[in-house]
Amino acid sequence: MSSFVLLTLHDPEKLNDLLAAWEEAGVGGATVMFNTGLGRLRSDEALRDDIPLIPSLSDFFDHPELHGRTIFTVVDDDTLVERLLLVTQQIIGDLNEPDTGLFVVLPVSRVYGLNKTNRRPA
Questions:
Q1: DSSP string spanning 65-117?
Q2: Residues whose CB falls within 8 Å of the CB of residue 85, separated by 6 or more in sequence, listed in order
Q3: What b/e readout covers 56-66, taking b as 16+ CB neighbours within 10 angstroms?
Q4: pLDDT tens digit at each of 122 positions of the chain
Q5: Is the pTM value of this prediction over 0.85?
């Protein structure tokens, strides 16, 4: 059965090392998005007064270092999930500690388009 793996990464400076480790562990692809958590919203780090009245998406991400990252992928092997958890904690630290991240694994009943043979270079 396939699994959906989602990681919220608190420290964006660890993103490149993390993605390299995931690839080395066997992940064929992953999606990365900016995120802002409730703690940052409440601490006013994410609230900005310089956003134009009609903003573009880039206006929100002028300071990407203030945002965490959400990485997700779908894998079809439980041993790969365990490898991802291991390499993730080797890079970002013990997930039980504050300011590291959240690693979530969900079962997937169906996947379409996962095993593509003609991948374009990134």
A1: GGSEEEEEEEES-HHHHHHHHHHHHHHH--TTSTTSEEEEEEEES--SS-S-S
A2: 103
A3: eeeeeeeeeee
A4: 899 999 999 999 999 999 999 999 999 899 999 887 776 666 655 555 555 555 555 555 555 556 789 999 999 889 999 999 999 999 999 999 998 999 999 999 988 887 765 555 54
A5: no
**Is the Cβ–Cβ distance between 83 and 27 less than 8 Å?**
no
- Who contacts 13 (Cβ-Cβ below 8 Å, separation ≥6)? 65
Query: Which residues in 92-112 are b (16+ Cβ under 10 Å) and which e?
Result: bbeeeeeebbebebeeeeeee
Domains contained in the chain, CATH given: 2-108 (3.30.70.120)
Cα–Cα distance, 40 to 34 (Å, whole number): 13
How far apart (Å, rounded) are the C-alpha atoms in residues 70 and 111?
A: 20
